[in-house]
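Quick one: structure for this chain?
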Amino acid sequence: MKNQILAPSLLSADFADLGNEIKKIENNQGGAVHIDVMDGSFVPEITYGEPVIRSIRKLTKLPFDVHLMVDKPELHVDSFALAGADWITFHFEATSHAHRVIQMIHEKGKKAGVSLCPGTSVAALSEILPCADIILVMTVNPGWGGQKLIPSCVEKVAELKKYREEHGLNYKISVDGGVNNETLGSVIDAGADIVVSGSCFFNGSLKWS
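Got it. Here's what it folds into:
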């Protein structure tokens, strides 16, 4: 892909060999490292936190795309910025103060992303779209890897692209969930700028060219 960024998700990597898994991202056209942070509250699973991100930060110059699947993300912006995040994406559904969280992220010199779950409409984000750098469309329900893409969610990508054009905005559109060789074309055609892929990337089957 000439214009899209591939952001492989470490959630599907071999945690016992993260150094080589990051090299795999670098050597296979990865443009960013997608890091899913789960708190066991906003989503059922628990993954990793700041110490892991801090420890792998020195292994690559690729941007760290940190996806906070956590309640009250405003409590964690500072620590993840210090740990080495370059892009910090939080869930619109996880806070009552989305605009303020974006401000906090920008104050740390980081790109601010806002994610929406399958049950959240694009219209709900209308007041913060002018402030965000990235809009992450979840095409599965957040919290587990290996799910199938929900086709109706791809329509949100096209809607966000149209809204961006009509209002002269600059946010990038990211897609996360169920991206494989069968679904990659649909999310690219809909207008995705950043594509997150987990298991399909790390098992070596993703055809990205």
